[in-house]
């Protein structure tokens, strides 16, 4: 599975794709990357400049204490999770906002040092919740993905789309499953069910 994310519309993009973790890290040679992007966008000869390639893994990690003494941590250093639901950067900015004004008040002598203790108390539970929410959102995409694939087929996605368009019972079942998968995304509870 691959996807494109706009960095600078419409000239700079992130082209991401999943890989089978059991088969080791994927080939990131320029020729392979060009070929995969060509398949993704349906144009194998388009001119591309590749700025950077990297390998990234889904995380489910959070710490329970953001500060000790004079040391204060925030951002991805204390909570890591997949991009699903777009929560990462927002949570980092919220950490910085929470800590910034408290530091200023303490440094200027407007508040007692105890104010700074509230940073970890307030932000650590949010970090945990966000990590669990983002991972749950990722898991909730799995049924949708499954509707568009036929396992074991030479081209699983092409076969999945043929099945999806089938007017017979298999197509009806696939379309119903897709509706159920969309409904799941609509009705996600704010409390994550799963944490792996
Ligand atoms: C593929 C992907 C898609 C994402 N999509 C979204 C999205 O849609 N919405 C959203 O809100 N968030 C998204 N995020 C998450 C978001 O990008 C991160 O949560 C955010 O950038 C983390 O900010 P940060 O400042 O904590 O860490 P970083 O941005 O990682 O910054 C840390 C900095 O520290 C530097 N550094 C590391 N070690 C050292 C060292 N020893 N000395 C000095 N400097 C060092 C690094 O070079 C880096 O510049 C996505 C992330 C990924 C990977």
Quaternary arrangement of the chains shown? single chain
Fourth-tier CATH superfamily name of the largest domain: FAD/NAD(P)-binding domain
Through-space gap between termini: 22 Å
Helix content: 40-55%
Ligands:
flavin-adenine dinucleotide
Question: Can you name the CATH architecture of the largest domain?
Answer: 3-Layer(bba) Sandwich
Q: Globular, elongated, flat, extended or rod-shaped: what is the shape? A: elongated
What does the radius of gyration come to?
Answer: 22 Å
- Total helices: the number is 6
Main beta-sheet strand count, sense and barrel state: 2 strands, antiparallel
- Which residues sit in consecutive blocks of at least 5 with pLDDT less than 50? none
Mean pLDDT across every amino acid position: 91
Total DSSP E strands: 6
CATH class label of the largest domain:
Alpha Beta
How many independent structural domains? 3
SS-based structural class?
mainly alpha
The string of secondary-structure elements, in order, is EEHEEEEHHHHH
The CATH topology of the largest domain is FAD/NAD(P)-binding domain
Description:
The chain has 196 residues and is mostly helical. It has three domains: 2-41, no CATH class; 61-138, 3-Layer(bba) Sandwich (FAD/NAD(P)-binding domain), CATH 3.50.50.60; 142-186, no CATH class. Helices cover 47% and strands 11% of the residues. The protein contains six helices and six strands, in the order ββαββββααααα. It has helices spanning 30-41, 88-107, 114-140, 142-147, 156-165, 169-186; strands at 2-8, 12-17, 61-62, 67-68, 71-72, 79-80. The strands form three sheets. It has a two-stranded antiparallel ribbon. β1 (2-8) and β2 form a beta hairpin. The longest helix is centred in the middle third of the chain and has 27 residues, at 114-140. The mean pLDDT is 91. The protein binds flavin-adenine dinucleotide. Flavin-adenine dinucleotide (FAD) binds next to α2.
């Amino acid at each position: 599975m691959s996807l494109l994310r706009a960095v600078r519309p419409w000239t700079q993009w992130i082209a991401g794709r999943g890989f089978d973790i059991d088969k080791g890290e994927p080939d990131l040679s320029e020729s392979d990357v060009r070929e995969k992007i060509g398949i993704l966008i349906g144009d194998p000869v388009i001119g591309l400049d590749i700025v950077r390639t990297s390998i990234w893994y889904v995380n489910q990690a959070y710490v329970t204490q953001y500060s000790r003494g004079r040391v204060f941590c925030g951002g991805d250093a204390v909570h890591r999770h997949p991009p699903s639901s777009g929560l990462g950067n927002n949570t980092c900015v919220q950490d910085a906002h929470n800590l910034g004004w408290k530091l200023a008040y303490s440094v200027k002598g407007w508040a007692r040092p105890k104010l700074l203790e509230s940073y970890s108390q307030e932000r650590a539970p949010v970090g945990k919740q966000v990590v669990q929410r983002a991972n749950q959102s990722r898991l909730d995409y799995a049924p949708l993905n499954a509707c568009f694939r036929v396992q074991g087929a030479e081209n699983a996605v092409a076969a999945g789309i043929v099945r999806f368009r089938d007017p017979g019972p298999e197509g009806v079942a696939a379309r119903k499953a897709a509706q159920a998968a969309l409904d799941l995304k609509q009705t996600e509870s704010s409390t994550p069910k799963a944490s792996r």
